[in-house]
Each structure stands twice: as C-alpha cells, then as structure tokens.
Specification:
about 290 residues; 10 helices; single chain; mainly alpha
C-alpha cells in the first residue's frame, strides 16, 4: 500500500510539473495537481508537507478569476482534517469556519459541518459536535434523500456522539438506520456494511455491560443499605441496653438506701428498752 502511494506521489509530481510548463502557475489544473499531491502526502503521514501543498493550491484558486467557492471549500476542509491529524484542532476549526463562511451549497456545508464535528469529537467536545451533526444530517437528508451513504455517515457520527455521552438508547436507532442504508446500497458483505454492523454490535455489547453493571450497583447498594440498617439497629440496641443497665443500677442504689435506713430504725428501736431501763435504774437509785 505504501509503495503504491509513493508511486502515486511520483506521478503526481510529474503531472504538476507538466501542468506548470503548459499552463503556467495560475491555472485550475495546477491547483488540482497541488491538491491531489497533498492528498497523497497526507495519506503517507507527511502532514506538514500536505499543509504546504494545500495552501499553495488554495493560493492558486484565490488568484484565479471565476474560481468557484466549492473548490476553495474543498481545500479548506482537507486542511482542517490535516491540522486535526497533527493535534492542532484550533487551526482545523479555523479552516472549517472559513470554508462555511464561503457560503457553499448545502451539500458542501453538510460536509464541512460533519468534519468540524469530528474535530470536536476528537477533542472530546461532544456538546459542540452534537448540534453540528444534527444540522449536517438534516442537510444531507434534504440533499440526498433518506437512503444515501452520506446520510449513513452522518447517522453514524451522530450515534457515536451519543455513545460517547453514554446515551446508548439514543445511539442505537441511529446505528440501526446506518446499517440498513449500507446493506441496501452495498449489500451485506461490503466492508462499509461490516463496519456498520460492528458499530451496532459494539453498542449492544456496551448496553448489556451497562445493564449488568447497573444490576451489580443496585445489588451493592441494597447490601450496603441492609448493612447500614443492621449497624443502626445494633447501635440502637446497645444504647437501649446501656439505658436498661443504668436504670437497674439506679433502682439498686435506691433499694439499698431504703434497706440501710430500715436497719438503722430497727437498731434504734432495739435500743429503746435498754435506754428505758437505764433511766429507771437511775430513778430507783435516787
């Protein structure tokens, strides 16, 4: 595959040199040659070289009289993708916003919105990606109808955002629609159909795992609640037992005090005859 790309790169260089010799620097064929060569460099992973070639192509198109917005929009969109590949999403977003500002057709706008959303997705900015993908899907359905591969792509990307957000119920019907479109257009064994089926299978597996996890969490929460209740009852029982012991101790102290008082009175009573006899003895002696 890589060898084929290098061969394609050599051919692209030859075409570009020939176009420059025949037409000069400012010609649509030169702009196309630069863009095609940039595509190859991007696929080879030579992103900085690809950016240089895309910018040269854009400069040629901007100098040409009557050069359409669609061609400029296409180059800017590809520039945005390369910048995102380099880990420079801000530059990529700026390119896509420039492309949309050119006010191209709905089809091109949908493509730019989709690419811009993908850049936000790669940066985990799913809230920014979601409205862009919803608008891109609406434009593509309007432009191509409900059964077109471009619509399937928009459905897949929108479903992927919901999946990343953990909204599996929202993602599932989108993946199912995308799979149906690809099966109808390409057949059941095409690579794009297999990929769409894989997306849906992966999502369904996550749904099952999520359900199992939810059941496990629910079970853990129930056990934790039961344990907490058990501990609470244990503490309350200990408090009641302590109160009972304190009550019994107090009653015991009160009973002991009454008993000692009774014995003291009995001893006093016992001493009365002795005391009386003593007084009587003293009287007789007198």
């Amino acid at each position: 595959m890589t060898n084929n790309l290098y061969e394609a790169s050599d051919l692209g260089k030859e075409y570009l040199e020939m176009a420059r010799r025949v037409y000069g620097e400012d010609h649509p064929d030169v702009a196309n040659g630069l863009m095609n060569l940039a595509d190859i460099r991007h696929k080879l992973g030579e992103h900085r070289e690809a950016i240089k070639l895309y910018n040269e192509s854009l400069s040629v198109r901007e100098r040409l009289q009557g050069e359409g917005r669609l061609e400029k929009c296409e180059v800017l969109q590809k520039l945005g993708i390369v910048y995102d590949s380099l880990g420079e999403p801000e530059e990529g977003v700026a390119c896509l916003e420039r492309a949309i500002a050119l006010d191209p057709t709905d089809q091109e706008v949908a493509g730019c919105l989709n690419t811009l959303a993908v850049i936000h997705m790669n940066s985990k900015q799913y809230d920014l990606a979601l409205p862009l993908l919803e608008k891109s899907l609406a434009l593509r359905e309007k432009e191509f109808g409900m059964k077109h591969p471009h619509v399937a792509t928009a459905l897949t990307n929108l479903g992927a955002v919901f999946e990343k957000q953990g909204k599996f119920d929202a993602a599932q019907p989108l993946f199912e629609r995308a799979l149906c479109i690809r099966e109808d257009v390409f057949g059941p064994d095409h690579s794009q159909t297999r990929q769409a089926r894989g997306n849906l299978d992966d999502l369904l597996e996550k749904c099952r795992m999520d359900a199992d996890f939810a059941r496990q969490i629910s079970s853990i929460e129930r056990r934790a609640a039961d344990f907490a209740l058990e501990q609470k009852l244990k503490v309350e029982k200990e408090q009641i037992d302590q109160l009972e012991r304190m009550k019994a101790q107090k009653e015991s102290q009160q009973t002991g005090g009454r008993a000692r008082g009774g014995r003291a009175r009995i001893e006093s009573i016992k001493k009365i005859p002795t005391m009386a006899a003593a007084r009587l003895g003293r009287s007789v002696a007198a």
